[in-house]
Write a structure and sequence with these properties.
The protein is α/β, with parallel strands linked by helices and about 240 residues long. Helices cover about 35% and strands about 25% of the residues. It is built from seven helices and twelve strands.
Length: about 240
């Protein structure tokens, strides 16, 4: 049994995999508690895994804390995925391969396994990443843009008259809070559509895969055809 964990900037998602199917799954947002407190709340009642495999974009101190919790709870050494120059038929476009986010790397590995053809991988989270992958497995490069939450927080932080309130992502907002939520949502959707269309124009047609914690909310706002793959990180 393997515990698979995707540790992002704002949430942690996990699956318990027995080699054939997911036995348990869960996710939680990172709030006031520490990452290790979050791990304790999420994982302390799980059965003993044989391996713990993690994709993490958080800092080294957080990774060390999670690894220590796993070591104390299960006497296991957590394995953290790192990007490399090449793996599983994928060749990294970065001059410094290890600087490519591990979440982007495993998402492309999964996309390659799923499609075997040219594709564009869109991961919607705290940041939105869009990567182009050639049919032969060559990573052609990608972009990183702020996600919806970061856009909203920038407005709250840098303006005096916009309080941090929950709104509805409407195109024609009838309040400031709805205007902020709608603006962020449609800005992300427009960025995804526009960037993938430009990539397709330059690199050629291909399947557009959509994943990430905010993907389900963005999907109805997109104009282009996308295949939603909520388990893409875990597949990789």
């Amino acid at each position: 049994m393997i515990l698979l964990a995707d540790v992002g900037n704002s949430r942690i998602k996990w699956r318990v995999w027995d080699g054939a199917e997911y036995l348990q799954c869960g996710q939680a947002a990172h709030g006031e508690e520490s990452w290790t407190e979050l791990a304790d709340r999420q994982w302390r009642r799980l059965p003993q895994p044989q391996r713990v495999l993690m994709v993490s974009v958080v800092g080294l101190a957080t990774r060390a804390g999670l690894a220590d919790w796993i070591r104390q709870a299960w006497s296991l050494e957590a394995q953290f995925v790192t990007s490399s120059a090449a793996a599983c038929g994928i060749r990294n476009a970065y001059a410094e391969p290890e600087r490519l986010g591990a979440d982007r790397w495993v998402a492309m590995i999964a996309a390659r396994a799923l499609t075997g053809e040219r594709c564009y991988v869109v991961d919607c989270g705290t940041a939105v990443t869009i990567d182009a992958l050639a049919a032969d497995g060559q990573h052609l490069g990608g972009v990183i843009v702020p996600g919806m939450r970061l856009m909203r927080e920038a407005l709250y932080r840098e303006t005096r008259q916009i309080p941090p309130e929950t709104g509805e992502p409407q195109l024609l907002g009838h309040s400031t809070r709805d205007g902020v939520w709608g603006g962020a949502a449609y800005a992300v959707a427009s960025a995804i559509d526009g960037i993938t269309e430009r990539m397709i124009a330059q690199c050629g047609p291909g399947l557009r895969l959509l994943t990430g914690g905010d993907a389900e909310g963005v999907l109805p706002l997109l104009r282009g055809p996308y295949q939603w793959e909520p388990e893409l990180i875990f597949t990789g």
